[in-house]
Amino acid sequence: MSRNPASEPNKMGVRPVGKLLFTMALPMTISMMFQAFYNIVDSYFVAQLSQDAMNAVSLAFPMQSLLIAFAIGTGVGMSALVSRSLGEQKPDKARQIAGTGIFLELMMAAVFSVIGLLFARTFFSLQTKNETIIRYGGDYLVFVMGICFFLYAQVTLERMLQSIGRTDKSMLIQLSGAIVNIVLDPLFIFGYAGFPRLEVKGAAVATVIGQTVATGIGILLNLKYNPELKGAFRMIRFRGRIAADIYRIGLPSILMQSIGSVVNFCMNQILIGFTEAATAVYGAYFKLQSFIFMPIFGLNNAMVPIISYNYGAGLFGRVRQTYRLSITAAVSYMSLGAAAFLLIPDLLLGIFSPSQEMLDIGVRAMRIICLHFPLAGFCIIAGSVCQAIGNPFHSLLISICRQVVILLPAAYLLSLSGILDNVWFCFPLAEIVSFALSFFFLRKTVAKLNKDRPAAA
C-alpha cells in the first residue's frame, strides 16, 4: 500500500535535532555557496571589461539589495507562519498563509518593476558624474529590476518548500538558476558563440534568464513534493489579517536589509570621496564576504522553520537544542572565513582583475573588516531565533543600532581623518555593539520562553 506523505509525522518534530539541522542545512548551505560562487563569477566577468564596469555593478548593489530585501522578508514571514501552523496541525491555515504570501510577493514585484524602469538611471546619476558608470549601471539595473517578477517568484517557491522542511528541493531551485546564470554570463557579456555582446547588461540578462528557469523548476517541485501546501496556488488572494501577521515577522528582515541598502549607498559616497578604487574594493569585498556569509544564511534558513515548527508544537527542548547547535556552527565557520581574509586577501582580490591601487587598498581593508566575522555569526543566528519565536523587532533594533547608530556615523567620523584605512574599522566597531545587544535579547527571549513554558526542559 502506498503511503500518503501528508499523513506522516513531520520530520521537524520527530527527527533528532542534530541530524535534522544538518540534513536541512546542508542542501541550503550548498545552494547558498553556489549562489555566492555565482556572485563572484558574475563580477569576475564584469571586471574583465573595466574598473568602471566593476564600479557600476558595485554602485547598483544597494538598489539590488533593496529589491531582494522585500522578496526575502515577505518569504521569511510566510515561511515562519506556515511552519508554525503545520506544527499546530492547522494545514488549511498554512495553505491560506502561503496563498497570501504569493499574492504579496507578486504585488511587490510589480512595484519594483515600475521603480526600476523609471528611476534606475537617476539612481546612478546621484552617485557619480562618470558617464560610463552611469551608462553601464543604468543598463544593468533597468533590466534586473524591470523584470524582477521571476526573482520574487523564485524566492516564494523556495520558501514554500523550506517551510515544510524540504530544503533539498529548494536547493535545486537555487542551483538551477545559478548554473544557468554562470553559463550564460560570458556568452552575453562578451558575445561569445554568436550571442550579442551586451557587456554589463549581459550580466543582467543572464541573471533574469536564470531566475526564469528557477521559477519553472520551483513550480514543478512544489506541485510534486509539497503535499502539505497542496492547493495553495488556488488560494492566491489578499487576506488582511494574514498579511499583517506575515509582515509582523517579515518586516524586521525587510527593514534590516533596507537599512543595509541605505548604509551601502552612503558608504559608497564616503569611499568614492577618497578614490573610485575604494568603491571597487567595497564592491569586491561584498562579493567575497558573501562566500563566507551565505552558508550561515543557509544554516539560518534551515534553523528558522525547525524552531517555528517545534515552538508551534510545544517542543521547547528541541527549540533550545536547535539554536545552540546553530550558534556553535555559525561562529566556528565564520572564524575560518576570518582566517582566510587575514591570510590570503591578495589572492581573493585577484579574482577581480584589480589595478595596483585597488589591490593595495583592498588587502588592508579586508584584513581589518574580517575581524568582525565571528561576532557576526552569533548575531545572525541570535536575531533569527528571536524572529522565529515571536520577537522579530529585537533583530530590527539590533540592526538599526549596528548600522545607523554606529557603523555609518563611525565611517563618516573616521573618514574625517583623511586616512582611508581608518574607515574600514567601522565594521568591527559596529559588530561589537551588535554582539552585546544580540546576547542581551537572546537571553531575554529564552528567559521568557522558560517562564511561559516551565515544563519544556
Describe the structure in your own words.
This protein has 457 residues and is an all-alpha fold. The protein has one domain. The chain is built from 17 helices and no strands. α2 runs antiparallel to α10 (276-312). The radius of gyration is 22 Å and the shape is globular. It starts with 10 loop residues before the first helix and ends in a 5-residue tail after the last helix. The model is unreliable at 1-7 (pLDDT under 50).
Describe the SSE topology.
Elements: H1 11-14, H2 17-47, H3 51-87, H4 91-125, H5 131-146, H6 149-163, H7 167-190, H8 200-225, H9 240-272, H10 276-312, H11 316-343, H12 345-349, H13 356-369, H14 373-388, H15 392-415, H16 420-423, H17 426-452
Give the structure's gist in a few sentences:
This protein has 17 helices and no strands. It is mainly α.
